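S., here's the first fold you wanted:
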Amino acid sequence: MPKPTAAILGASSNRSKYGNKSVRAHQRQGYEVYPVNPKGGQIEGLTTYCTLADVPVESLDRISVYLPPDVTLGLLEEIAAKGCREFWLNPGADAPEVVERAEALGLHPIVACSIVDLGISPGDFASA
């Protein structure tokens, strides 16, 4: 059975940021993780994709967002085009206008912490 897939938008190489903790949490729970950050490079040993469109999977099981609302608004069309079973807007990314636009695009956002949904506390991860 293939691993579930997750793209983390706003993935970070800074281990104290939630965008990094999410990468690690999803890895820990057996996901094939695709970090997305315009800087590219590597995060937690994984190839980091500059855009969601660059992720080499047709449709993802989960897209989890750790971006400011104004940035997320500009990406919603790309997110809808990529497709996913679950679309997570984590605290800070969940502005009402983002939720409204996501719903209009048929994304059915889940407004909650995707790390906690995995049964993990973000505090479980050391920053270093």
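And the second, which I think is the more interesting of the pair:
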Amino acid sequence: MAILPLVHIPDPILRAPSKPIERFDGDLQKFLDSMLETMYDAPGIGLAAVQVGEPIRVVTIDCAEREVNERGEEDPDPKREPIFLINPEIVATSDAPNVYEEGCLSIPDYYAEVERPAECTVKFLDRDGKEQTLEADGIMATCIQHEVDHLNGVLFIDYLSKLKRDMVVRKFTKIAKQSGKPFIG
């Protein structure tokens, strides 16, 4: 496994639709493991392949509660419940809305409240290529919708006002220009 470099806005790859996975092999399994390791290292609860520069329809998610001790320190050996969504398709959403403060590994240190459906149903292939269906609510539903949006070239800032979205993009464009490494962080 390897920690993969994260792609940040304004890299145009984040706006490109991702291609479906057609072959399950050892290379895909290694990539899934590296994506998971990258997500945990970041740290995050979801990661789409396009966020590490691979525009393929692959997502890793782990919304398991992180245990924190009385000193406010996270458990060094946390309970992990990773889910791999390959070629995910959201097939149903609830009418009831839910608002969460979202962040994104491709937009570091920026958070905003986003309204999405409170529940969703997603069909996908699991790590072994078996078809699965998952009904989700709460933070899991939000995370699934956020990551599937990535696969479609949509970012959570697209749900914000044009003014807020433009301010974020300008900030990260300026950072990219100043760093001399235009897009990959």
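Why I say that: Helices lie at 26-41, 138-151, 162-179. The mean pLDDT is 91.

Talk tomorrow,
H.
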